[in-house]
Amino acid sequence: MTARHLDRMFQPRSVALIGASQRPGSVGRVMVANMIAGGFAGPIMPVNPKGGVIEGLTVYPDIASLPQVPDLAVIATPPETVPGLIGELGAAGTRAAVVLTAGFGESADAAVHNEGAGLKQRLLDAARPHLLRIVGPNCVGLMVPSIGLNAGFAHLMPQTGNLAFVAQSGAVIVSVLDWAAAHDIGFSHFVSIGDMADADFGDLIDYLARDRDTHAILLYVEAITHARKFMSAARAAARSKPVIVVKAGRHAAGAHAAASHTGALAGADAVYDAAFRRAGMLRVRDLDDLFGAVETLAMLPRTAFRSRDEHIADRLGILTNGGGLGVLAADGLIDAGGRLAELSDRTLARLDAVLPPTWSHANPVDIIGDAPGSRYSAALEALLEAPECDAVVVLNCPTAIASADEAAQAVIEVLARHRGPAAKPVLTSWVGAKTVGAARARFSANRVPTYDTPNRAVHAYMQAVDYTRNQMLLRETPPSEPESFVPDVETARRVVEAVLADGREWLTGSEAVALLSAYGVPMAETRIGSDPADAGRQAASLTAQDGPSPGAKLVLKILSRDIVHKSDVGGVVLNLTDAAAVESAAAAMLSRVADVTPDARIDGFMVQPMIERTDAHELIVGLVDDVQFGPVIMFGQGGTAVELIDDKALALPPLNMLLARETMRRTRVWRLLRGYRDHAPADIEAVAMVLIRAAQIAIDIGEVRELEINPLLADADGVIAVDARVRIAALAEDVDPADRLAILPYPEALESPFDHGGQRFRLRPVRPEDEPAFRAAFDRLRPEDIRMRFFAPLAALDHDLASRLTQIDYDREMAFVLVEPDGGTGVDGAGLYAVVRLISDPDGDRGEFAVIVRPDMAGRGLGLRLVRHIVDYGCRRGMREIWGDVLHENMRMRALCAELGFRESRLPDDATIVRVVLDLDGTG
After folding, report:
1. pLDDT per residue as tens digits for the range 528-561
2. How far apart, in whole angstroms, are the C-alpha atoms of residue 520 and residue 508?
3. CB-based burial label for 533 (10 Å; 0-12, 13-18, 19+)
4. Where are the alpha helices (DSSP H) in 559-702?
5. Domains of the chain: residue spans and CATH
6. pLDDT by residue (tens digit) across 876-892?
7. How large is the C-alpha radius of gyration of the chain?
């Protein structure tokens, strides 16, 4: 379940307080006082076996005696009583509960933990038959200020606002409550989710994404459960509103503390970072940054750092009346990975004309400490109109000569003249305390972001840039892959199955070569020799005039199913000149290896040509298995010192060219790969394809748990893998390999030929690369077709909408496109004939369908077949109901739906629309 019945949790009509108490200082007493003080308008029903009256409310002895079934129950009773209470509430019709009680497995003591974990399972077993949703256990509770709901034992009730805050830690919850009260920050929802026995981050994000009163979602995360659900929810929510997250346990010691605190395992921090980025969220360092980012993003438009050509506009200009402040801001910018704008000659000349001769003549633009408001105005105008400057941070330090308030007003007046969708973002920092309060108040009143230090201003700027980058990545259309890629999956599977049958965990070198070669990874030519003499013969065949590497030097490697790290046992020899040298080295290697690992089984030798590419970069491409998020792809600078260099970036599969390049861009070696001085750029696309192939191995072969290609040599001529290691492990019989993936990949199995009216087509799931075809096909639609499909006139399909239609979450949505027989969409989208879509609710229970057929293909029965196809798909997914909204006048669609068994109903608030509903479970 995801969002099901959470409306009862956050919009209840009645609440039962089970464990209410008269005892001063008890959770039960605070719980009652908070509910009354919150101003909840519905019935509040305390429950305690002793009965009586608390705070003027009648106390009922048990659940059976309640005068009505509560929508929400808040429970603060001993842990052993909670499963029974949940079962009784569910049977009565309650569908939501907040369990404040601890003792459900969060203890670090093994015996206590096991006992509590058993109780937690009994709790879930009691709730499941009734689909009763639970927040907690071991939580502070939840608050919805707009309806006066304070279902917990925190010491304060937050103000009403439009931020939702969700946290695992009760200590963080009450601390943020206190902080927010002091800063007049309000909330739509304030939720402590504790141990997340049932409702977790994915569930809450799904609910809050659709809540109109919530404009931004803030998360304090210690560990994620159900990674696929979390990623689906976060990716959907981040398209409509900011999702900002603080992740605790960034370092190993902190991660261990988080795990013992929540009873959940915390995955590697870099993996969380990759997941948050992939979902379009913004990760910040701490709670101060969390609320600072909210303010920044609220005051700046979502497109503030997006250039006209859909690139990141991140060249910063710094305007200051104090040189030291400017230097501090520039240092903070560079430390955070930002870049200063390089002022053009034209901009410098314009600034020369309006500033005193002593100004800095560079960026940061120091306009000198005596700068009046007019000087701020003139300099800011010049920077805002400079094409090389994408954003500006304006700084002020108080002086006795010039008024800080006057300078602030001047900035505000300039910004008023530069408003509009193309306006450049401006952030400010008026430094000080006693004399700058009025200036900061002016900025806040005029919705200009302002910060107390230059470093905070620059940090907020970089947060906004990072957020924009993640959002663009979420929406950007990937380029097509430069080469067709059809892996030989069956060959790869045979390799893996043979190793598993042999009872081994690690593939030998030759087996790793076979696996990677099946996926098209360029590998060094490899020959296998069974003994030293055979190794010599293989060397001769490699270096012969008609061989693959005539005259090349050679590398000899031991081949053993029991040896993973060949270099550690003397199992690698380089720079061998001929076959005789190889044979001699092989004999010596046998002796060395036998001394170090006498029990290792020797399967032979690998002979390879020395790869001598002097300008090549040594890279590493890997695959690791994360405890939360499953397979993760790693890229970075490789070689023997890879751990010391520690230059890596992680990404979740599946990957495309856009995601692969973005992963590479986050490493230091990326700048080298792009070329420098007399070194030509490496073949970036070839490197990206290796990442894509490694991701495809993770998707296709779930048994592969660890893969490392190191080094992968890359230069202008392409890439070649010199060495590789692969570790495998069998999957449990009931595990679908796809279940290990945090993001469901393209479902190739759903492609099928589609013959209709004597023509051959192909019906396949939509792909992100289809966006250009969608936009071109949209241009072929008649205005009437557009109105019938979108219920409003649209002049064109813009990028944001087109990307939303093509970059779908295959776990929650499906769109089938009818295209050319080869699966392509033809030139300018001419081969895209129809689209049928089904968007599931987060629970997979109901789905909304839509279909559109190109005008020249209409009237041939295509629409009927496509809707029938999507209905069949919904049935296979276990949906209970499919529905759609149709314009009342669209008689053709209404007739089609009637033929398929849909029933019609009118929407009470819109007479122009008919809702059609098809029951798939036979209950309608």
Report:
1. 999 999 999 999 998 888 878 888 889 999 998 8
2. 19
3. middle
4. 579-596, 642-645, 657-665, 669-673, 684-700
5. 1-138 (3.40.50.720), 300-475 (3.40.50.261), 489-609 (3.30.1490.20), 617-740 (3.30.470.20), 748-919 (3.40.630.30)
6. 999 999 999 999 999 99
7. 32
